[in-house]
UniProtKB/TrEMBL annotation:
EC number assigned by the record: 2.3.1.191
Pathway assigned in UniProt: Bacterial outer membrane biogenesis; LPS lipid A biosynthesis
Keyword Repeat: yes
Protein's UniProt name: UDP-3-O-acylglucosamine N-acyltransferase
Protein's gene: lpxD
Segments of this protein annotated with the region Disordered: 1-25
Function: Catalyzes the N-acylation of UDP-3-O-acylglucosamine using 3-hydroxyacyl-ACP as the acyl donor. Is involved in the biosynthesis of lipid A, a phosphorylated glycolipid that anchors the lipopolysaccharide to the outer membrane of the cell.
UniProt GO MF annotations: N-acyltransferase activity; UDP-3-O-[(3R)-3-hydroxyacyl]-glucosamine N-acyltransferase activity
Active-site residue numbers: H282
Family: Belongs to the transferase hexapeptide repeat family. LpxD subfamily.
Keywords: Acyltransferase, Lipid A biosynthesis, Lipid biosynthesis, Lipid metabolism, Repeat, Transferase
Amino acid sequence: MLGSAAPSVGAAIEDPDTGVPTMTKPPMTLTEIAEALGAAVEGDGSLTIRRAVHPSEAEGPEDLALAMDKDLMALLPGSKAVAAVVAEGVEVPDTIKGRIVVKRPRYAMAGMLDIFERPVHAEPGVSPQAYVAPDAVVAPDASIAPFAYVGPRARIGAGVVILPHVTVGADAVIGEGCLLHPGARIGERVEMGARCIIHPNAAVGNDGFSFVTPEPGSVESAKTTGRVVGTNVLIRRVNSIGTVILGDDVEIGAGATIDRGTVTATRIGNGTKIDNLVQIGHNVQVGTNCMLCGHVGIAGSTIIGDRVVLAGKVGVADHVKIGSDAVVAANSGVGMDIPPKSVWMGYPAVPRARAFEQYKGLARLKRLYADVSDLKKRLTAIDGGPVKVEAEPAEQQE
C-alpha cells in the first residue's frame, strides 16, 4: 500500500489530444495500479488507465471510476467507464470489465490520488526575481519561485519547492522535500523537518500573545478571586525569543498560525496535520500524528499528546494537558486536563457520557417544571392553603 507522501513536483504527462496535464506518470494498467495499492484485481487487469474520475464524469474506457461507496456504485450502470475501484463484496454491472477490489475504500483512495495527482510545476533553481541572501544555503535541486524571499543564513534542503511570495526568515531551516505554497511566512530561526507542506498564507514563527502588568491585573484577580480587583494601568509586551520546530511530514493549512515560544520552542510532532485557520499559541507542545481541524484555537503552554484529534472549532485554555489518543468533539471548550484515550465534548468539555447526560437533562427541564407546577397545584388542593405557583420562565413558554 502506498504510504504518506508530499505532493509531487515536476512536469506532468500531457493528454495527447488536449495537451492538458492528466497525471504524474505514463498510463498504467489496472494490474499495475492494484499492485501499487496492495489490492486485488478481478476481471481484465490489462486495461489501460489514464485518469481516475467520479463515475458520472467517465468519458471512455481509459477512465477509472472511483465507486467506493453505495451512492457511487449506483452510478456505475450509467457510466462510460469499463474499469472501477470498488469495496469488497459488492456486485458490479456487466459493463465493468475490470475492477480493483479494496478493503478500506477511503484509505485506498488516498493512495489512488497519489498516483493520479497533478504535480506542482517547479523547475530546480532560483528565479532571478527571487531574493536569496548571499549567505543562505540552497540545495542545487531546490526551486525558488519569483518574488520569494530567503533571509540571511537560512538553509533550504534538497528538493524543496518555494512558490511565489513566500518569506523564509533569517536562520530558518527548511528540510528536504518541503513544499511552501504562495504567501506562506516562515519566521526567523524556525526549523522544519522533511516533507512538510505549508499551505497559502500560513504563518509559522509569529510573536506569542504574551503581556504583563507591573502589579497583578484584572486577569490575575479574576482567576484567583472571581472578581476584578486589579486594573491594567500599563500593559507590557513579553517578547518571544524562542522559535518553532516542526517534525517530519507536518502539514499546515491555509491561514493557520503558530506562535514561537517565549524562550524555548513551540513544537509540532512528526506527521501532525493542522487544518486551515488554526491558531497555536506560544510554548505549545503537540505530539505526533495529531489532527487539529479548522478553527481550533490552542492557548499558550498547553501540552498535547500523540494521535490526539481536536475537531472543528475546539478551544483549549492555556497550560492544559491532553493525553495521547484523546478525541475532543467539535465546538468544545477545554478548560481542564483530559486523560489519554478518552472522548470529551461540550462547553465546557466533559467526558462524552456525562455530556449526553447533561443534554438529556436540559431536554427534560420543561417537562420537569410542568410536573413540579402540577404537584404544587395538587398540594394546594389537598392542604387547602395557598401555595405560590410561579409563572413558567419566558424562555420556556411556547
